[in-house]
Design goal:
Belongs to the peptidase C56 family. HSP31-like subfamily. It is a single chain. This protein has about 230 residues and is of the alpha/beta class. It has 8 helices and 8 strands; from the N terminus they run E-H-E-H-H-E-H-H-E-E-H-H-E-E-E-H. The strands form 2 sheets. Strands 2-1-3-4-8-7 form a 6-stranded mixed β-sheet, with helices on both faces. Helix 1 packs parallel to helix 8. The radius of gyration is 16 Å and the shape is globular. The two termini are about 10 Å apart.
């Protein structure tokens, strides 16, 4: 049986200001997708509301749009996947070996408090599967509780887009909250690389997190190794 990966993407298309667009940071999906695809894993996309997933415009421009992202943009079949994602209610967690939360600032709004995503994450983790996230995708793990009522991230080592990187990227003032601090407030043992914008992955048992877009490929490779 082929391993099955569930990618989580956002439905949010803008920051607090509706005229300021955001969305999925495409390479965070494409880099992981190619890693898993090369190993013959089956993959599916889910979003909080299902349906269309908007893309972060900044990630589609030079130098951030690499060959992987460009290839996806020019592949009608792959783009169709982003136009018609599943809803959490469509997903049976028992049929997936791992969940992978993609990033982009959009997820800060629709990932943290979605009960469907929390259910999927909890059931995959408690069945012995892998929970993973890259960059802002870790916002999807902030409020997920296990069956015993404890927070999944409490006491566990994690990483994700750092507040320093928000400041250096010039977007800190747009943030609805400080995700790094929110993780620490929940008892997570947050870690980051010494230098910003370099690949950094943290593995704590079956919890795998990557710090930034540059970490997507390495994060997926660690998930694949665990599987």
């Amino acid at each position: 049986m082929a391993r099955r990966i569930l990618h989580v993407v956002s439905n949010v298309s803008h920051y607090a200001d509706p005229s300021d667009p955001t969305g999925l940071w495409l390479s965070e999906l494409t880099h992981a997708w190619h890693v898993f695809d090369a190993r013959g894993f089956e993959q599916r996309l889910v979003s909080p509301k299902g349906g269309f997933t908007p893309l972060e415009p900044r990630a589609l421009k030079w130098p951030l749009a690499d060959a992987s992202a460009k290839a996806w943009l020019h592949d009608p079949a792959r783009m169709a996947l982003l136009a018609d994602t599943a809803r959490p209610d469509d997903i049976d967690p028992a049929s997936f070996d791992a969940v992978y939360f993609t990033g982009g600032h959009a997820v800060m709004w629709d990932f943290p408090d979605d009960p469907g995503l929390q259910r999927i994450t909890r059931e995959i983790f408690e069945r012995g599967g892998i929970v993973s996230a890259v960059c802002h995708g870790y916002c999807g793990l902030l409020n997920t509780r296990l069956s015993d009522g404890t927070l999944l991230v409490a006491g566990r080592r994690v990483t994700g887009f750092s507040w320093r990187e928000e400041v250096l990227a010039g977007v800190a003032k747009k943030m609805p909250y400080n995700a790094e601090q929110a993780m620490k407030d929940r008892g997570a043992r947050y870690e980051r690389a010494l230098l910003p914008f370099v690949p950094h992955v943290v593995v704590d048992g079956r919890l795998v997190t990557g710090q930034n877009p540059q970490s997507a490929k390495a994060t997926a490779r660690r998930v694949a190794e665990l599987l």
